[in-house]
Structures are given as structure tokens and as C-alpha cells.
Amino acid sequence: MVSQFGSLGYTIMGKTSDLTVVQKTITDALHNECKPQTFIAKEAGCSQSAVSKHVNRKLSGRKKCGRKRCTTNRENRSLERLVKQSRFKNLGELHKEWTEAGVKASRATTHGHVKEFDYSCRIPLVKPLLNHRQHLTWAKEKKILDCCPVVQSPLFR
Length: 157
Prior knowledge:
mainly alpha, two-stranded antiparallel ribbon, 7 helices, 46% helix, elongated, disordered N terminus, THO complex subunit 5
């Protein structure tokens, strides 16, 4: 987040912004030439404190923003294992198993983690598999025995 004020002639850099690769290169080159930090800051387009931190190797990037996760990596792996073992369980069943394992997480958290694993918590549509006799009965009811070559095969008789 570097912004320049044309009339003022200096650059203001936000506290959460990191130096870019170009700014770091300029800073290193001018520091090797023993230029003052204020001059380096003007040339690189950043603050003098950012130059100082970079030169003294104290600039180590920004910290993570946002709320901390309520589950650990180990707990997340256990949920992923549960999902992979039983892919056709719904969210309620997965959440119940996961909390029984000792994880304190809400149902929404469980759903978010399952979505992160690219799984969906959906129950598959149940389609009954018909054996040959059931298929033949169905065909007789619909009166399509004559027009269906599969039903006319010797397996169905």
C-alpha cells in the first residue's frame, strides 16, 4: 500500500504492507553504496522505518489476519479421514462422529471444513437395483416386451 503525494514529495507506506522485490533490491543496492536511509526511502518509495527494518533484517512479513482457527491440523485430518471413510454420510452424522472424537466445533465449522476438502455432504439418491425377474415383471406391466430387445434375450425368460 504505497501512496505518493505529488506536491509533498515523499511517500507514505502503510504499516501492514511488505516491501516489494523491487523495493528490496533498490534498498540493498543503495545500502551497499552507503547512502543514508532517508535517501534510500525516497528512492525506493517506502518509509525510512521500513528501510531500517529491512537493512537490519527485522522485516519478516506480515502476521496472519483474521480470527484464529478453533481446530488444530490434527483435528482437521481426523475429520478428513472420517469423510473419506464414509463418503455418503450427511453433515449431521459427520458432525456427531467428529464431536464424539473430542473436537469442540460447531456444525457450521464442520461444514466449512468438509467444503475445504472438496466434499459435499449429500445423501445419494437411492435407486433399487432390479434383478432379471423384477425387470421382466416391470416390462410386462408396461407392456414393452415386444419392443425391447434386451428383455427378449434368453436371460429374461
